[in-house]
């Protein structure tokens, strides 16, 4: 399966990933999915390892899938949320990390509203305590590497060839950590990445990362092989980025009529949670070309692959389940 090794590496973002490393994760994720679909999900590949999730932002899919990924592989997993921890008493992120590190933790999975939080976490060290690996589960509007990896894995399962595909990302690019990781991940594998949405939400500067910014939705959708419909972050809508959600749905919402501009076998993905009726219509959300629910299942497999490859030597695993 190759000799690419990620052992002992923190997963902070896809900006510093090589194409071969991404492919390695996707290949191992395919093996891990067989475990997820099997009648015996409990393995011991990470037996004796301890994992802590530290989430200061709300999450359903990412936190749950990382937790299940660790448990399916035999690790002990503990969840820490801001509301249920000393962070509500003013404890700093640094002190929280030092505390969980002192408990012998092998990996810390962090979600934080500040860009660069994961990188900061990876540099928090103590001379008397082993520093755990850090997994970025979303840091502000910076990156969300495991989300992009599960999207790549999902599209590969959908029969899509990533190299030279036209991949369109629609919506709130400005605040999206998924979009930034997507640009890194998809372009490294040879895809043509298009960005579109209201001008207030699509920074032109992202073209410097290798993406193409389309002012017209139709240009981005035309002959697209896959589209990623981003959540409109309603908590930020009051900032005046667009007039109303109704206006957004009329001008930028993906419905069946607009979907017809894409290739007939276009794959539809969405990082969730969905605002049905705003950025995506009900019928498109549940269209036969939609892979949105499969993304959730694939998220567990991809995060199992990341934990396995970084916390072990990453040897090939048994496949007769």
Automatic annotation (TrEMBL):
GO cellular component, one term: cytosol
Organism superkingdom: Bacteria
Catalytic activity: carbamoyl phosphate + L-aspartate = N-carbamoyl-L-aspartate + phosphate + H(+)
Residue span(s) of domain Aspartate/ornithine carbamoyltransferase Asp/Orn-binding: 163-309
SUPFAM superfamilies: Aspartate/ornithine carbamoyltransferase
Pathway where this protein functions: Pyrimidine metabolism; UMP biosynthesis via de novo pathway; (S)-dihydroorotate from bicarbonate: step 2/3
A GO molecular-function annotation: aspartate carbamoyltransferase activity
BP-aspect Gene Ontology terms: 'de novo' pyrimidine nucleobase biosynthetic process; 'de novo' UMP biosynthetic process; amino acid metabolic process
E.C. code: 2.1.3.2
Keywords (A to Z) from UniProt: Pyrimidine biosynthesis, Transferase
Transferase found in the keyword field: yes
Aspartate/ornithine carbamoyltransferase carbamoyl-P binding domain ranges (all copies): 9-157
Binding site for L-aspartate: 89, 177, 231
Family, per entry: Belongs to the aspartate/ornithine carbamoyltransferase superfamily. ATCase family.
NCBIfam families: asp_carb_tr, PRK00856.1
Complex and partners: Heterododecamer (2C3:3R2) of six catalytic PyrB chains organized as two trimers (C3), and six regulatory PyrI chains organized as three dimers (R2).
Name of the protein described by the UniProt record: Aspartate carbamoyltransferase
Organism listed in the record: Dialister invisus DSM 15470
